[in-house]
Amino acid sequence: MRTDEQITSRPTDPEAPNVIPGRYRQVAVASVPTLDPAWLTEHFTDREVYFRTRFVVARHEGRVALVEVDRKPSDDLFTLTISARVLAGADDCAVVVDETVDTAVPSQLAAAAERFPGVRCVVVEGSYSHVSFILNPAPLRIRLVDVVPPGRAKLLDQVQRVLATAEDLPPVVVVPDLVDSRQLLAAAHDVPPRDLLIPCRGSGMDFPGSAVSFLDERPPERDWTLLGCERSNQIHQWFYGSTPERVDICPRQWLKPDGRSTLTRCCLLQEGVESERTGTVVPWGASLAEVRAALEIIVERAEVAWTHI
Ligand SMILES: [Zn+2]
């Protein structure tokens, strides 16, 4: 029954960024008559606890405090605590009750903590009534650059789906930086071009004042403006042997010199992930595996400090 964790666990640094329990079983919840720190310290010292318990969310009248306990090594299911310390007092804690939050996923805890900016400890009662917390939330903020429409922001959607299950990645918060392709066109043309060519049909692609053609339908050539990426330009070359006037929509153009924590997609990347100083790039039609690989690269380069206990 004895685990290494019991024998080797050291007190948590209350100032360490992104402290997150690795297992909800480490977190116990107790109703107490007061959240006074001295009382909590004494009460949770020399007290019987489940052998996995390392943290106690002490509750009193809707408020909480976070206590850490040290246990006597034991082979039994329950053991005695040797000492206790308050990691975050009642004034430093906020509570989120949201059954859509999977408390095993650091990025989901970080997203919950975003609801209380500046709060040191956010305790989350999430799916299956599991209780966990994030202490000193300092998630990595990834700038996600993409262009819409056509369609919804697909890459943003994919990143959020990957992060929603990333139990082993440090906490990440995505900061969308979305550019509207219709505004790009408006910025380039005072008057809408009479004929407009876009790569394919998609939702939200209505352009008042322009006759719209779709490149993937290989329509008869007109004197149009292409609203598309370099790949569309190449396809146009192949179809018609000419280079149209073009408004570039490739999100790569919005990368900045230091884009260590930036993610975007590019029409010219066929597969895999490219990572440069300006950002990390996945293919236009990236798979979830490629998105996951890109996130891993960004997280590793950023050297996110976190304690996953
Ligand atoms: Zn591109």
Report on this model:
With 309 residues, this protein is α/β, with parallel strands linked by helices. It folds into 2 domains: 4-135, no CATH class; 139-309, no CATH class. Helices cover 21% and strands 32% of the residues. It contains 7 helices and 19 strands. Strands 2-4-5-6-3 form a 5-stranded mixed sheet. A 5-stranded mixed sheet has the order 11-10-16-18-17. The radius of gyration is 26 Å and the shape is elongated.
Q: N- to C-terminal separation?
A: 18 Å
Question: What is the helix/strand order?
Answer: HEEHEEEEEHEEEHEHEEEHEEEEHE
Largest sheet: 5 strands, mixed
User: How many separate helices?
Assistant: 7
Total strand count, please?
A: 19
Bound molecules: zinc ion
Globular, elongated, flat, extended or rod-shaped: what is the shape?
A: elongated
Query: Which bin fits the share of residues in helices?
Result: 10-25%
Layout of helices and strands, plus pairs?
Elements: H1 4-8, E1 19-20, E2 27-31, H2 37-43, E3 48-50, E4 55-60, E5 63-71, E6 78-88, E7 93-97, H3 106-113, E8 121-125, E9 131-135, E10 140-148, H4 154-163, E11 172-180, H5 181-188, E12 195-198, E13 211-214, E14 225-228, H6 230-240, E15 245-248, E16 262-266, E17 274-276, E18 279-283, H7 288-302, E19 307-308
Parallel strand pairs: 1-19, 2-4, 7-8, 10-11, 10-16, 12-13, 12-14, 14-15, 16-18
Antiparallel strand pairs: 3-6, 4-5, 5-6, 8-9, 17-18
